[in-house]
Amino acid sequence: AQKITQTQPGMFVQEKEAVTLDCTYDTSDPSYGLFWYKQPSSGEMIFLIYQGSYDQQNATEGRYSLNFQKARKSANLVISASQLGDSAMYFCAMGGGYQKVTFGTGTKLQVIP
Amino acid sequence: ETGVTQTPRHLVMGMTNKKSLKCEQHLGHNAMYWYKQSAKKPLELMFVYNFKEQTENNSVPSRFSPECPNSSHLFLHLHTLQPEDSALYLCASSQERGGETQYFGPGTRLLVL
After folding, report:
1. Would the CB atoms of B106 and A100 count as touching at under 8 Å?
2. What is the DSSP letter of B73?
3. What chain B residue is nearest to A41 in terms of C-alpha separation?
């Protein structure tokens, strides 16, 4: 069984600063993928970034990077140069093989001007 | 239209009404999903369709009835709902069923009176 844990229900960050959102996972699958989604107040889940378990390098997409530490089973999301539009819920998720994608409980990020 | 679309975006219905939610994906994907997102609860997977065949039903009450006429369209038929069914219903699609990146629609906010 897969499990995703997000321990930060809410986070604040100053505009233009970097912020790290924590995510730990547990799985017995040797091959899996890790995802981060952003959900603004409008409701849509927006795919941000993906990391495969066998990828050698940490994934990056613009201002988003995934700090993947396999031995620690963590997949933290780093947002650099925060913007007011980054205020939203952020969900960590994982999937592997034919396992369904499992989502964490989310972290609410608020960017302060 | 691109991506995943959902209609209606908002729906208010009485407990005796019958309504349907529609989802359409323009990504050429073969798998489609229905999720329920209630306040302060993790995202709940309801149904999975792969190549038009239902591959997963997560113990969803029979008052929710999915239909997938083709790989691009997914419906959720609602009848005799309860107030606790009020939630955001999200549709998603992926290339194939499994742990792949899912792309979500904007959701339908449902209120059952």
Report:
1. no
2. E
3. B106
